[in-house]
Amino acid sequence: MKREIKGMLTGLGVTFRTMTHRAVTVQYPHEREEPPTRARGVIALKEENCTVCMLCARSCPDWCIYIEGHKEQRPPRREGGKPRSVSVLDRFDIDYALCMYCGICVEVCPFDALFWSPEFEYSESRIAELLHDKDKLGEWMETVPEPEPLEQGAVVKGKK
Amino acid sequence: MNPVLALDIGWGTTLAIKAVIVLAIVPLTALILGYVFLLKMMSHMQSRLGPMDPGGFHGWYQLLGDGIKFLQKEDIMPAEADRRVFALAPAVVVLSTFLVFVVIPAGPRLVVQPLDVGVFYALAVSSLSVIGVLMAGWASSNKYALLGGLRAAAQLIAYELPLVLAVVGVVVQAGTMNLEGIVHFQQTGELFGWSGIGFPLILTQFIGFALFMVAAQAELTQPPFDMPVAESELVAGYMVEYTGFRFLFFFIGEFGTAFAFAALAATLFLGGWATPWVHGTAADWLGPLVLFTKVMLVAFLMFWARFTYPRFREDQLQAIAWKWLIPIALFNIMLTGVLKVAF
Description:
The complex is a heterodimer of chains A (160) and B (343).
Chain A: H1 2-20, E1 42-45, H2 55-59, E2 65-74, E3 84-95, H3 104-108, E4 114-117, E5 131-132, H4 134-139
Chain B: H1 11-45, H2 62-72, H3 83-101, H4 118-126, H5 129-139, H6 143-174, H7 179-188, H8 206-219, H9 244-269, H10 281-306, H11 314-342
Helix pairs in contact in B: 1-9, 1-10, 2-9, 3-4, 3-5, 3-9, 5-6, 6-8, 6-11, 8-9, 8-11, 9-10
């Protein structure tokens, strides 16, 4: 009985203390909440890194990534060499009405062309307008935070 | 001829003015309690802000807007409903709220109708709402509504007893059932020859006060005694089939009755409108303010418990009433009686 009464009083104390403290609510349209740096807000595309390898589109569980590209012949590096063939990205769309923010595409990209950005304010009034093209995805690159510095003593491999 | 605020007017006009005031005050008090406690205090107790935008300042317009919205809504009645009973039920519930306000004095002369059996009358009419609730539950032809109505009836009857018994101590001590008499007793009373704060009966009737608050909470079917409306299991109990202004009636009934019970508690235990050293015209004007302050204080306690505790199980709920509250109340009456005779 004593324990129950103590518990009830503790409960009253909790609600009273919460009432006297500031509410955690952020009045969103009036004041903007800063999401955590690594928040999964939207996927940004670094176009020059993309090789049209389609790994992201194939790994996407929702099939929400649309990629089109073609091959172009570039002049050979050395005099008299074979012309180089380069993949050029024509279309890279992500349908955010389908995307479930699993991040597999970001994980799977072997050339670091896809990044998570904490940007979250891209709602649209029509669902079809949530299909964003590569220009829009490229704009979001600016909001991608710098990668964390490596741990102390870590060995940087590969070319700079 | 009945003087209202020192104006001599005919009884018909007096009655009309009184009716209008009571009709205006009940929804107003429901709005005030709903806004201050349900919207604002509960939000802050859950570390959120509640409505902030409607009306510009801390969402003061929210409940008024809700009320207007309810008036616009379609009045839906289930096909199998007992139409007349269904329509009448919310009115009965609200009526019981209105009737309680009749005897609560808000000043030395500011009372709709002083009654010698004021306490008895107030508690009697407040239990009228059971009938409305049962009517609503039965007439809805809905199993959830019926379960809610039956639970409500069982609960309200069980807690009516401790509610009445808790007040008996006050009546014994003040020697009158007239609410104005009880206020007068507390105003003119003295604490060991010191009349600074009069003699609020909570000092000797603190057991009665605690019992009254618990029982009132149950009478209002507020958490932790909200088995009849338990929205997670009964959807909303007897209110499940009600829409629009009929639902609004239940809402006004709930919060209006909360205000009425808080006013009763303030009058019986905290001295009502009275301030010991204020008399005459000053008391006429100060009375309602003092009463309102005390009511808000009592209402704060009620809603504080409401927003803190989870719901009781049906058997626990009955056990609390019959095994704890009623024996304690009887003991309290006995103690008060013995002390009253001894001193």
